[in-house]
Amino acid sequence: MAQRSSSVQTTTVSPDLEENVIEQTDGIVRNFFYQRFQMDMQSTESELCVSTPSVPEFNHFQSNPLSPSTQIGRRLAEIGDQINDQYAGEFRSMIQQLHITPSTAYSAFAGVARRLFTQGINWGRIAALLMFGYRIGMEVQRSFGQFINKIIQNLVKFIISEKITTWIASQGGWYSALTFKFDNNNVRAIAVIAALASLTVFAVWMSHR
Fold it and tell me: Which CDD domains is this protein grouped with (predicted)?
């Protein structure tokens, strides 16, 4: 057990520069969205497969399968898929109650998203943040169209302004997400966070009335 712990630590002991993390964030978030969209479109059993809206921004998306941004985006999308399997209902309920429009999307998203990190930052919560943003993006895209770029910009803005990039840099940069293992402890933690986040929905919705 001690040897296994040591081998995991070696992947995160060398911090990255936060400037590098910030520079890479937009590309990784875009790759996350693209990978999640592909998962939705390819899944014949998913409810989302039937209702996933068209996203013209992805029609000519260029993604080198060997690039770090693609690999990291894909790994986070895989984690996000596990989270979505567990909490699709919670995501759907929160988004429906927020009554999001393009003009209210960022403040509504940020008000709920901050709850994800009240107990600290980890890769599971970052993946949950991206998944929540993706679900908001798909919902608004379905109703208003041409919104995916805006929600990606909102996510990047949030990750930088809330200093999540500082934590990522301390872990060795975005690349360290590739070694993260999502397990039952992460599921339980996100369950508690999802419950807390839902408490903010009514207050955020009221602020937009």
Answer: Bcl-2_like
**Cα–Cα separations (whole angstroms), residue 36 to 5, 19, 30, 56, 126:** 31, 26, 10, 15, 15
Residue 14: per-residue pLDDT = 84
Q: Determine the Cα–Cα distance for residues 70 and 145; give it in Å rounded to an integer.
A: 25
* Helix-then-strand count for the chain, H and E: 9, 0
Round to whole Å and give the CA distance between 140 and 150.
Answer: 10
Question: Against a cut of 0.85, is the pTM above it?
Answer: no
Q: CB–CB of 151/55 below 8 Å? A: no
Q: Which long-range contacts (CB under 8 A, 24 or more apart) does 139-144 make?
A: 139/95, 139/100, 140/100, 140/101, 140/102, 140/105, 141/53, 141/55, 142/51, 142/53, 144/101, 144/102
Task: State the residue for tokens 């209902």.
Answer: 89
Q: Count the residues in the chain.
A: 209
Whether 11 shows a pLDDT value over 50: the answer reads no
Tokens linked to 41: 């479109």
**Token pair for 33:** 């969205």
Q: Nearest CA to 32 among 63, 70, 5, 3?
A: 70
Asked if 26 contacts 152 with a C-beta cutoff of 8 angstroms, the reply is yes
